[in-house]
Amino acid sequence: MRPVPPRPHPGAVPARSSEVREQGTEPARTAVGAGSPRTEPRARRVPHLPAGPLAGLLAGCSVLAFCLLCVGSHAPMADVLVYRAEGAAVLGGRDLYGFAVTEWRLPATYPPFAALLFVPAALLPVGVLKAVFVAGNLALLTVLVRLSCRLAGLPARLPLLGAATALALWLEPVFQTVLFGQVNLAVVCLILWDLTRPPGARGKGIALGVAAGVKLTPAVFVVHLLLTRRHREAATAATAFAGTVLLGALVLPDASVGFWTRRLFETGRVGRAWIVDNQSLQGMIARALGDPAPGPLWAVPALAVALAGLWLARRARDDRRGVLVTALTALLICPISWSHHWVWCVPLIAVLYAGHGPRAAGAVAAVFTARTLWLVPHQGDLDLRLPWWQQPLASPYPLLALALLALLARPAAAQPSASSSSASTIR
Asked: Among residues 71, 295, 362, 419, which is most buried (max CB within 10 A)?
């Protein structure tokens, strides 16, 4: 859910990665929540970073610049207002899906369970609530950077976390998430925390199920767990998701019936699928064809990408790449994936740095900081009348994701065996 008018598009400062040297050690075998370990590339040394005070200064300047930009542009944080209205509807016993707020007339689009979580938002003044969301999302970004390091097998020293968080704030999906007051960072943190826990960890899968109860797209990871034969974790996640549905039905029975039988299929409530804001496969195809409703011309490729993506995730050389391939597949096949949904770029960049070096990571970071989708004409229906040479600029994320699916899922080359290799678990 997001407003249609154009957003402020300040220039971001792309992170510059220095060259690193690979260690001359045999590759370890690493399991990231997988049922069996898979071969990992050689460990990559993290470049020397500024000392703690300098990294803290960088983070403080980055946050200060962001806050000044928000104040100067009068950022409305429209999604925060929708969440607040959802909580108020629950408290007041009003129709959860019968209201529209802000000048863009935004409705509620999440399952009833999510509205229950938003009840505390209705108790706070708007100004305080916006400040809480900004502070909370900045804290969650730090958590996401930490989890991304854990996923990639990179050290997460405090200077690294501070510097990486300061730079990650200016990635377009992250910037838009904080600017709008979205919950994407919380959802991705729940998923990554759960999937990077050791195999057999108690309650593994619950956080994933809760995330799917807030936003339905994470349910794709349950399919990935089944395909990788982690049936216990998949069952736990499915049970947790069912629990969110049941809780929503008990507290909000009418809203639950309406959502699961009707609102779920009204994708038009979320927004117009053909605008540049939508970086899904459907949005890219709609703009390329100049057709706001491509129908089978989108559905058939989406089905093919779904099957291929899940298959590639199943055969990825290690589970960290399998997780990212699954995430990219979900973002591609979802009817609407707003640009701020692509906060998966943070763990993506970390894994690419660890496995393919600073050049690959830097190139991907450049795509997510360039904001080319906002440079093309996108007022009114101009999104549907873009010339051919502007199409890649209007759809950078789905094009990048399609290219990365094969790279991330490429099988490992044969490695010489070493008796000293041992399985290790990222904790």
From this structure: 362
